[in-house]
Amino acid sequence: MVNEFMQAEAVESKNLPQIGSDLAAQIINAVVSKEHVAGLTHEFYRYPARFSPLFARAMIQAFTKPGDTVLDPFMGGGTTLVEACSLGRQAIGTDINELSVFISKVKTTPLTDAEVESIQVWAQALIPNLSLRKTTAEVGNKYQKNIHGKSTWPIRKVLELALSQVPLLETEKKRQFARCVLLKTAQGALDCRENIPTVSMFRAQFLKDLAKMLEGMKEFRERIQAPNSTCSEVKYSPALCLHRSAIGIEEDENLRKLAPPSLIVTSPPYPGVHVLYHRWQVQGRRETPAPYWIINGSDGKGESFYTLGGRSRQGIEKFFKQTQAAFSSLARISSRKTLLVQMVAFSDPEWQLSEYLSAITKSGFREVHFSALSNSPDGRLWRGVPNRKWYAVQAPATATNKEVVLFHQLA
Ligand SMILES: C[S@@+](CC[C@H](N)C(=O)[O-])C[C@H]1O[C@@H](n2cnc3c(N)ncnc32)[C@H](O)[C@@H]1O
Asked: Cβ(246) to ligand 1 under 6 A?
């Protein structure tokens, strides 16, 4: 099928770094790998359609040096930002989803030993309070939809009890981390689960999640401070996680002070591919916005808001217009040296790939080609997708089983 796709234009630019055969093999392995990668803070949340840390890591290592700026304008679960920080790069991300911003911030905000200790003390004191016999002052929340059922209400109730204890932590940083642990345990209990766990299982899982997350956070902190790491000469600067659209990013005050990104590595929403970034699916196809309740955030938007357009015919048309607008903004903050790397999938690649490439070209970028980084007759780098939870509405099931890596620079 890939033979029929537009051939990647063989543009070799003098601004492109050289990719030797060893490095090329490493990058291709990282892209096609189906290995589940844990470690650092990557396991804090299962963000839908997240890419592998190996992909982000390989791109950052190959195309930037410590101290460079790495941007992910569709940051999702913050995979790029975690990798960029842990490799000593200045990480910046934007996303219109408050859930994405919450998760990315918690994942890239190191905790001190004293903070870890106080969260552990808080969690131990919390456990005896997570009992259905206890009463809560909580009077309901608009984001509790579809978690009032026979098997889900006990989980809702223990979450109410736990959330009511979060203010006992003295700082916002510790409160956000605590909410993130509850978010993880609640996602494991409710999202895409046929059998909802009991309250005692929830309590045990919460302590396990807390321990794993603190371990991941410790590893993250050691990495950003490691005296012998490759980034020892660069002072760590916190990631910038901005709650905003990629469209209009050139007007953002936060970016004005920074140098243009050396690398933009990202994965925008996919055209016509149904992904729920803002809901959990409870027992079948009932959807809940409960994550916004747990993070104390706000949602109030439909699927098309988070997917640059949605699944309908008009939605897909809008997708291409919005994509062009977003990449035009990205072109305005890029320099001649900026490399744009995207991982993209399509519900119907036959026509959508060329439409997509045309939107990126109209934005002011041109496709560049690394001859060493190709595994397909069209000159591009493709990968099979393992076990993705999404629904392609327009095309045969095989269509979204592939993703392609696209490289661009300013035209
Ligand atoms: C495929 S996900 C990114 C996943 C990410 N690479 C990861 O590893 O978790 C795409 C993200 O784009 C965000 N998004 C959609 N429209 C946006 C826009 N106009 N500006 C910024 N982010 C947007 C969605 O909220 C979603 O989080």
From this structure: yes
CB 309 within 8 A of CB 318: yes
Query: Do 254 and 136 sit in the same domain of this protein?
Result: no
d(CA 264, CA 84): 11
Q: Which of 72, 69, 21, 43 is nearest to 268 (CA)?
A: 72
50 lines ligand 1 (CB under 6 A): yes
The count of other CB atoms within 10 Å of the CB of residue 194 is 8
Whether 35 is in a domain gets the answer yes
CB-count exposure of residue 229 (10 Å: 0-12, 13-18, 19+): middle
What is the CA(151)–ligand 1 centre distance, in A? Answer: 32
Q: Which domain holds residue 12?
A: 2-108+238-272+307-410
Query: In a mutational test of the pocket of ligand 1, which residue from 96, 255, 321, 323 has the highest number of ligand atoms less than 8 Å from its CB?
Result: 96
Ordered per-residue pLDDT tens for the chain, 411 residues: 343 455 655 555 566 778 888 999 999 999 999 888 889 999 999 999 999 999 999 999 999 999 999 999 999 999 999 999 999 999 999 999 999 999 999 999 999 999 999 999 999 999 999 999 988 766 678 899 999 889 999 999 999 999 999 999 999 999 999 999 999 999 999 999 989 999 999 999 999 999 999 999 999 999 998 755 555 566 788 999 999 999 999 999 999 888 999 999 999 999 888 889 999 999 887 999 999 999 999 987 888 899 998 888 899 999 999 999 999 999 999 999 999 999 999 888 888 999 999 999 999 999 998 989 999 999 999 998 765 554 444 444 445 678 999 999 999
Q: What is the pTM of this model?
A: 0.93
Asked whether residue 279 is assigned to any structural domain, the reply reads no
Rounded CA separation 12/372 (Å): 12
Tokens representing 195 are: 């059998």
| 38 and 164 assigned to the same domain | no
CA dihedral 149, 153, 159, 163 (to 10 degrees): 90
Q: How far apart are CA 272 and CA 304, in angstroms?
A: 10
90 contacts 84 by C-beta, under 8 angstroms: yes
296 inside domain: no
